[in-house]
Design goal:
380 residues; alpha/beta; 6-stranded mixed sheet; 44% helix; elongated
Length: 380
């Protein structure tokens, strides 16, 4: 009788990371007599099990994630399906998507859906536009199929690249925190695995992953970081740079979570709504806040009124209105949202709601407080 191949250590690690990421969402494994057959057990025929979806491009990371996730289905913890998003940005993308779908079907995933999307830039860069279209498709698929989670295959290397890109842009805490392990239904269980681990997992399962040619295209900043910058830093500063950057992201993620909660609490306590759909923030309350919270409160108001995430420079310009002696502004915060300082004058009597406040207004959109269709910055 032929011996089964020894389990690759990276596969065991990946299984543990995946189970930890889905803690609280999985069914209890069924009790069996004797030692369970990890890879040979038939998937339980039960529609009552929770459904987990893998976002699969056919690349090494997502294909390895799909292969590892099958273990959860075979041990009766959940059902595992997949969504393949075809962005239509490259020649032959439809064929690539179908091959990815065939690969995960071959692993035993079900259901497997291919979603073709139209990428419209809408004032953002091509990568952000594709990301927005992809998440919209994943959101829709998860909702229609009733999935409890959507798995993303980002690795520690992706996280390190994300931090470097944030540093290059001069970003704040949230951006430098990189990609969260959990956000809504999304889970990134492989943020502690290296890209080499996912490639080894694919080899272990006999999978032939697709390699996205844009990963080698120097016209993309992420490709330059991946192919040139990070290898250079590893060569000059030591092989631990990627892990150090990922550790930095985890530390800053905790800080960002706390700052965002404090900012949300402060915003809720300060915000009032004007009769004309404006958002009013009292000057005294804003001045009493630390700068880190004050800027975030201003950003929350701008986002509520329909702006994209305002830049640090625009937020500082809005803050500077608090230093002025009389009425001042407006300062544009983006997305047709402006802010000005209102003081007592002929048109505003003492005691009017806007007296002594910064007044934020959307000057050309229906996405203000009445519509509640607020824009949010696209997250990685």
């Amino acid at each position: 009788m032929a011996r089964r191949p020894r389990l690759l250590p990276a596969v065991g690690t990946a299984r543990n990371l995946l189970a930890a990421s889905l803690e609280g969402l999985l069914a209890e494994p069924p009790r069996r007599g004797g030692r369970p057959d990890d890879d040979g057990a038939a998937a339980p025929d039960s529609a009552d099990l929770p459904l987990v979806l893998v976002a699969c491009s056919g690349g090494p990371d997502s294909l390895a994630l799909a292969a590892v996730a099958v273990h959860l289905a075979r041990t009766g913890r959940c059902r595992v399906g997949a969504v393949v998003v075809d962005h239509g940005l490259q020649a032959g993308s439809a064929g690539t998507a179908e091959r990815a779908a065939a690969a995960v079907r071959g692993l035993g995933l079900d259901p497997v859906k291919v979603r073709r999307v139209s990428v419209e830039h809408g004032g953002v860069g091509p990568e952000a536009a594709a990301r927005g279209a992809r998440y919209a498709a994943l959101d829709d698929a998860a909702s229609r199929l009733g999935a409890v989670a959507v798995l993303l295959g980002h690795t520690l290397d992706d996280q390190a690249e994300q931090v470097l890109l944030g540093l290059a842009r001069g970003s704040g805490t949230r951006s430098l925190a990189g990609m969260p392990e959990r956000r809504g239904p999304y889970r990134r269980p492989f943020l502690d695995l290296r890209r080499a681990d996912t490639e080894a997992i694919c080899a272990f399962y006999g999978l032939d992953p697709w390699h996205d040619p844009t990963n080698l295209d120097p016209s993309y900043a992420r490709s330059r970081v991946r192919g040139e910058v990070l290898p250079f830093l590893e060569d000059r500063l030591g092989p631990g740079i990627a892990r150090a950057l990922a550790r930095t992201a985890r530390i800053l993620g905790q800080d960002a979570d706390l700052l965002e909660q404090l900012s949300a609490d402060a915003y809720a306590s300060l915000r009032t709504e004007g009769d004309d759909g404006t958002v009013l923030l009292p000057e005294d309350g804003l001045r009493a806040l630390p700068a880190a919270l004050r800027q975030r409160v201003l950003a929350l108001a701008a986002l509520e009124l329909g702006a994209f995430q305002p830049s640090f420079e625009r937020l500082r310009a809005a803050e500077s209105l608090l230093e002025r002696k009389g009425s001042a502004g407006p300062v544009q915060l983006g997305g047709k949202v402006s802010v000005h300082r209102q003081v007592r004058g002929r048109s505003v009597l003492r005691g009017e709601p806007s007296y002594g406040s910064l007044v934020l207004r959307n000057n050309g959109s229906d996405n203000g407080p009445g519509g509640k269709q607020y824009r949010r910055p696209i997250q990685e």
